[in-house]
Amino acid sequence: MPRPLPVSLVVAASGVLLSVWAAKAPDPHTAEAPLPPEEAARTMIVPEGFRVTLFAGEPEVMQPTGFSIDDRGRLWVAEGYSYPDHTDQPARDRIVILTDIDGDGRHDRRTVFYDKLNYVTGIETGFGGAWVMSPPYFYFIPDRDGDDVPDGEPEVVLDGFGNHANSHNIANGFAWGPDGWLYGTHGRTNWSMIGRPGAPESERERFDGGVWRYHPIRKVWEPFADGTTNPWGIDWDDWGQGFVCNCVNPHLFHVIQGAHYEPWRGRDSSRHAYRRIETIADHLHYTGGGDVRGGLGSEAEDLAGGGHAHCGTMVYLGDNWPDTYRNGIFMNNIHGRRINHDIPRRAGSGYVASHAPDLMRSRDPWYMGVTLRYGPSGEVYASDWSDTGECHSTKNTRRETGRIYRITWGDLRVPPVDVSRLDLADLVASHLHRNDWHVRQARLELQERQAIGIDIAAAQAELREIFSKNPDVTRKLRALWTLWATGAVDDGFLTDQLSHESEYARGWAVQLLCEDRDPPAGALEAFAAMAAKDSSPFVRLYLASALQRLEPSKRWPIAEGLAIRVEDADDQNLPLML
Questions:
Q1: Per residue in 231-266, pLDDT tens?
Q2: Measuring CA to CA, which residue among 97, 94, 110, 107 is closest to residue 54?
Q3: Chain segment 464-508, per-residue pLDDT in tens
Q4: DSSP 3-state assignment of 400?
Q5: Beta-strand (E) ranges in 284-348?
Q6: Which residue, 287, 372, 275, 393, is CA-closest to 328?
Q7: 490-577 belongs to which CATH class?
Q8: DSSP codes, 62-128
Q9: Domain ranges of the chain
Q10: Which DSSP symbol is given to 145?
Q11: Does the domain at residues 7-409 carry the CATH identifier 3.30.300.30?
């Protein structure tokens, strides 16, 4: 885990950027047009050694509400023309595929994949198609032959995602989690009643916002964590810990299974929570206090971080940027027209995140960042909605603007990649790659092959070797997650890991044993012993999460063990989770 930068360095670096920014940044409220795309890229302020280039700009990409990167390194971009009117007809939001054929950092080919969506807010690829959030619908658009032409009309996976209250606090961006589930984030205003198409209300589940997940093979949806105001985007660090950024209230949360986060705001789902878990950030990016808009445009707010609205969480695990950025958390600051950088460090059962100098600041008055993702060579792509209204654009002054920028350390060419063509040995080798993009794509490919009946036993055997013998716990975890996602570990194996030397392996073994809500008796006995004796507050947090997935009668021995741990009385998570 990178160490936080000294406060003096953070303030000094931020102050230097601020002086440049204040002198040259135009007023977004009076600017009638954005900077031209190339100029916007060229004039961005980044630390020495970084380079920003234009990957795509209007008219090739417009109104990008999100994007994902497929197994060939191509960007699948969701274009949302219907915002902010989710009743806009006819449906005309689009999914476009942008391909950089020669690896020079600029797209060479644009393909319209589908153009009859309404109010599209998220996209991910995998399992032979595109997963698309378009409230009230969660779609799968099949393309199993990979020809970039849908095999048929979108299939409704689930419906009931809220779009009744406003235009932006809604279900949004997707990401594949380390455990093989597809994760999504969800704003709190447009609460949802989620179920299969046609399901009666009695068979639906209310979700008031936070983090949820869907299993692509088991066809199961479930809430994962409740709360925050409007999270948009989730990502994980080297140890499989999830993080989301947020708007309005403090901006960063460690995603704990079963947690309830601030603020409550009258959510039914948190009505009986004793108290809700607070942000992990030890700072604010705004100065207005109770009035989050109070400091907008002021020099103090600019120095603090730019404003209260954040979007597009990314934990950098690529291999192009300097090592000091690894496991750093990056997020777009919408009002501040920049990319904030927070550095997490372990504290008790969780984390504290400290303010670091901004990674990028745009001089373009229309810059409005949404999504951040790193690619196969460690390069980072940042999408720009390109407008002047608040939190995307309630004004939506133009619908023909939009950009995607590429941020690299130095000059970088991206060689061709196609994970779908790798053999089993290469997919296993990808788990040792420094860039986690390759790990995640290899895991997804193995999970897909196993799901359609392809024999991957040889790969699973090699992954067991990595878990058993590799000295790096992060590599062990990568292997464990893929073994789990491909059905290659059982309760006996996981129970054995409850005594593993690594607290991270022990914690993950607890979570995976409780996935089906019915761990074996031996695991339950071990849980109770660990609650009373395990030295790691991190492991005890996993045990506290597990309680919610057990029958009440099986919880007490574990809860009693956790409750006597006086050293956890002031922990930021454990008393509230318990």
A1: 889 999 999 999 999 988 889 999 999 999 987 667
A2: 107
A3: 999 999 999 999 999 999 999 999 999 999 999 999 999 999 999
A4: coil
A5: 310-315, 329-333, 338-347
A6: 372
A7: mainly alpha
A8: -SEEEEEE-TTS-EEEEE-SSTT-TT-SS--EEEEEEE-SSSSSS--EEEEEEEEESS--EEEE-SS
A9: 7-409, 490-577
A10: T
A11: no
